[in-house]
């Protein structure tokens, strides 16, 4: 770790102060800070980013350890001492007497004396919701499972390489890795190298993608020659996974309401070798281009906009940025998008609904309301779909992934089929 010094701690505190406004994603805030301070080297940037995200992960206990202080500099200093093993003595030259006393108390702070929401590092409302839905013990394990940074998962592009070949090449290049336990084309790295500079990335043989996202493509299980729609494609990570499963045959639409997000697919698509992908920016789920394909599509994936509470390892700011009202509004939006996507299905077609959330309001509740309102659609067991692909993962009729159990991002998914 870079040795902390006054200017560097100042940079971390400034970036954290902006991130704590919660006006946008924390990673974008940190990136803007780096663009404004190009004098920071790679190790300095790593220090700043790690400090900011450490505070965002454990903001509640750090505030309690600081005696209730919410000053960004206090929180950065406390994170160094409590989480990164920096001694108070080593900071003597750059802290004042108040900070020295505060850090002494912070170092001795015992979080086990605090309420469960503080120990779980969650806002009260979110802790209460999770405890109600899963029970106190499971909710605490779930919350703690998302406190450590996420590893780097890769998806092997099977159009260009086999997983065993990729693993052998990475290991030969000194990158420790192993096959993911569930995804048949996933690789998990032991570290976080600059993989975007590796030849396998540059030639499109691998993409960075969490194993949970890869499993959604397996649930869709598109067949060669089909017409398939990725309804909320974003930057197209799951689109590319679907295209590889389809072996570049058929027609694959990547739809999103954000042209900017969709533009992120272009360079990835160029590397992938896929020629059957058609990105389209749509206005909403009722876009005329969507209506023209009503009743004609064989597979549809709806990875709906959500709170992202299953991705807190990567995006810890989400638990502070979203509140109960936001989740309720998202659930209404999710139901609307899902209903719009269902109109695309031809008889016998499959629809997969997914969110990277651990809240039932964004998962089971949306799926069950959809089934009640769409008698022409029936639920299909996610466990059976995966078993047919020899994927050893059974979480019941719905797919429920938890970081503390499955070691990937938290996801919910439901599969439906329209009557033939």
What would a concise description of this structure say?
With 420 residues, the chain is of the alpha/beta class.
Question: Could you name the key traits of this structure?
Answer:
alpha/beta; Rossmann fold; 2 domains; eight-stranded mixed sheet; four-stranded antiparallel sheet; 45% helix; 15% strand
Mean pLDDT: 96
CATH architecture verdict of the largest domain: 3-Layer(aba) Sandwich
The strand count comes to: 12
Low-confidence stretches: none
CATH fold descriptor of the largest domain: Rossmann fold
Strand residue content: 5-15%
Tell me the distance between the termini.
60 Å
Oligomeric nature of the chains:
single chain
Largest sheet: 8 strands, mixed
Which percent bin holds the helix content?
40-55%
CATH homologous superfamily grouping of the largest domain: Vaccinia Virus protein VP39
* The top level CATH class name of the largest domain: Alpha Beta
Q: How many individual helices? A: 21
Estimated radius of gyration: 23 Å
By secondary-structure content and strand pairing, the structural class works out as: alpha/beta
Describe this entry's structure for a reader:
With 420 residues, this protein is of the alpha/beta class. The chain has 2 domains: 6-114, no CATH class; 211-418, 3-Layer(aba) Sandwich (Rossmann fold). Helix content is 45%, strand content 15%. The chain is built from 21 helices and 12 strands. The protein has helices at residues 6-19, 26-36, 42-57, 59-65, 72-83, 97-108, 116-119, 124-134, 136-145, 163-172, 199-202, 211-220, 237-245, 259-263, 265-272, 288-291, 318-321, 324-342, 364-373, 382-388, 403-406, and strands at residues 153-156, 177-179, 186-189, 206-208, 227-230, 251-256, 277-281, 297-303, 345-355, 377-380, 399-401, 411-418. Strands 5, 6, 7, 8, 9, 10, 11 and 12 form an 8-stranded mixed β-sheet that branches. It has a 4-stranded antiparallel β-sheet with strand order 2-3-1-4. Strand 5 (227-230), helix 13 and strand 6 (251-256) form a beta-alpha-beta unit. The longest helix has 19 residues, at 324-342. The radius of gyration is 23 Å and the shape is globular. The model has no long low-confidence stretch (mean pLDDT 96).
